[in-house]
DNA sequence: CTATCTTTGTGCACGCGTTCACAAAGACAT
DNA sequence: ATGTCTTTGTGAACGCGTGCACAAAGATAG
């Protein structure tokens, strides 16, 4: 999921390419680029789908939204398809990008080669720390936040990347938008509020890990139901596991007659067995 | 959101929580944690939904999968909900994690505080470069790849993070899986092939930017070649981004009578309008 | 030109996810 | 108790995305 979006007609897609398809185009493009470098002239939907890690029917349907670029009995012309997808994604033009917040992550992003190779050009690196100003990162001198608006306007930047601490993300986003940016890639763990017409996509490592943890818990616990899954991973016993600290207070009655509703909660759970309300020592958040 | 699903029969979710909901739980948890720190006792679905950037009806339905933890006429008990969601996500236990590939990105990840704050503990940092061995990154000494299997087994690691170059990703994934890892977060731009039962989530900056570029292109009104102009979105934008270079080579008839189909492609495109922002997952299962 | 084989393009059905809308639960006042 | 007001929990409708299955297009061989 991308962002904390709120605007969205929902029934607005009257002609465009489905969002799900757009999200896969870069995947196909990557696979096609690899084929192109090996001078492979054509590929079947089956081969390409396999390389991209998707279902071949899905791939064909995706391409059908772009038009009929394949040849029955043969497959797709690699070079031609690379061009068509690039064009559709808007990669046939140069996209200047600004990265705001040149800390650990921002610096890594600035050094990332995947930028330039796809038509994205780092127009500027911005940081609020005066001590950073002038320092070269990835061959580009970091500029102070004061330069933000000027840089955006002078370079016609429409895409901004936020890699500042969470607390600064919204203010930075506001400035980016005010200066003309209409697309933001946010790495800070916060929900950004932006005006209609501005796209925000977010990348949150913490969320990804939590999703993995959820599934991991099911695997080890083996109980699909309500979960008081128990540790003891399948693999070699976990020494490190176990209860460490106890940042979070156990359920317990914190307010009102919560105590009552804690047990009765079993009344609604679908197929699960009652009497659980499992209470394990809590370890976590902050 | 969570769209492309591959393994995980989808139907196997039996009485489980929908994937889309699982993906949002961390979002709710973050918002709730913030409220908790401000000692707010209860929240209504409306308030919390707003803080998490989602629709209130969706939030209520999401919570309904966990059970009936709200009180009509009042809302949800913050502390209680924090605990329930943490438990459901498996955050009440400690998850040791290994990061493989301590380069620009790997080092940034190692320094990321969002790890520990959610119950994830960096058990080890692994890199193939002998020169890196022993060097401390984020307070932890980097270990050579040879130690990979031992570290995983000794710590009962079940979650691995790959931050190596694309070419090394698959081999690293194979070793992780062979050693017992069953969940992988992949930052390398490659499709990983893993056995059934192993979850892989990927984060690809390049793909995110390309998706943004797609929408950005629509906003600026011109659909190169085949498509004609589209009504401007809203924000009086300045066609941001001056067209500079042309990263991608033009079509050119490379095979057969391709030249003909270039124009006729207009036959299928219907009319559409922009405005929609795909809320697809920034990260998809792979 | 006809037959056969390959692979695309897509109609169709199905299931997940989103959203609306409202009955009912409970808080609170009288 | 009874009534009013607030907010949850969820039934139901709907749209999107997925994947099957196959007719048709085109290549290729005879
Ligand atoms: N490091 C990671 O792997 C990682 C992973 C996921 C998310 N994040 C998130 O990314 C963000 C950055 O992480 P980091 O590890 O690089 O942090 P960091 O502290 O190393 O860097 C933050 C940088 O932002 C600058 N900054 C602060 N306020 C600013 C402002 N208003 N304008 C411009 N610059 C400003 C600071 O000077 C600093 O250089 C954080 O929100 C973090 O939660 C980081
Ligand atoms: N830097 C970014 O912002 C960014 C963004 C998106 C994706 N990525 C991807 O993340 C990966 C890492 O990027 P980076 O900028 O940190 O690269 P990098 O070259 O700085 O670091 C890669 C590290 O991996 C190590 N390595 C190589 N092969 C290995 C192996 N087989 N086992 C263990 N370690 C090995 C190298 O020694 C090096 O330290 C790349 O695949 C890149 O495409 C990076």
From TrEMBL, chains A, B:
The lineage of its organism: Bacteria, Bacillati, Actinomycetota, Actinomycetes, Kitasatosporales. The keyword DNA-binding applies. It is found in: Cytoplasm. Residues 220-286 are annotated as: Disordered. InterPro entries: CoA-bd, NAD(P)-bd_dom_sf, Rex_actinobacterial-type, Rex_DNA-bd_C_dom, Tscrpt_rep_Rex, WH-like_DNA-bd_sf, WH_DNA-bd_sf. Its main location: cytoplasm. It comes from Streptomyces durbertensis. Homodimer. This is Redox-sensing transcriptional repressor Rex.
